[in-house]
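User: I've been trying to design a sequence by hand for this structure and keep getting stuck. Would you show me what you'd pick, starting by listing the structure so we're on the same page?

Assistant: Good idea, let's start from the same input. This is the structure you sent:
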């Protein structure tokens, strides 16, 4: 079964939950406690950020890498276009959203 290591409030983890739900994939959410809980992530993936997805022996870190992995492994309901130009545009917009909207959303959450 797919396992999603996450913080519930992480917009990056939310992105992956939405993709998993859209694709109709069963998964188990594992809430990572900041601090000590992140040590397990470092051991698994080499990083302390969420989300991290495990799929049998595969360990995938970073929401964009997870999205690409899910489309490759479970292609029935793709979220990223196959056409090279559309794929590039999609990934460019996704990167922009992560780096602008995502960072500002996190600042708002932390500030409240």
């Amino acid at each position: 079964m797919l396992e999603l290591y996450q913080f519930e409030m992480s917009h990056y983890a939310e992105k992956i939950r939405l993709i998993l739900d859209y694709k109709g994939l069963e998964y188990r959410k594992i809430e990572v406690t900041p601090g000590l809980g992140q040590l397990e992530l470092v051991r698994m993936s080499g990083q302390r950020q969420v989300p991290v997805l495990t799929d049998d022996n595969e360990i995938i870190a970073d929401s964009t890498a997870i999205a690409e992995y899910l489309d490759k492994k479970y292609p029935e309901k793709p979220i990223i276009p196959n056409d090279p130009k559309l794929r590039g545009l999609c990934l460019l917009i996704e990167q922009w959203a992560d780096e602008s909207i995502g960072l500002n959303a996190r600042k708002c959450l932390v500030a409240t």
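That's my pick for every position. To get oriented when you compare it with your attempt: Helices lie at 11-23, 36-45, 63-73, 84-111. The chain is about 55% helix and 15% strand.
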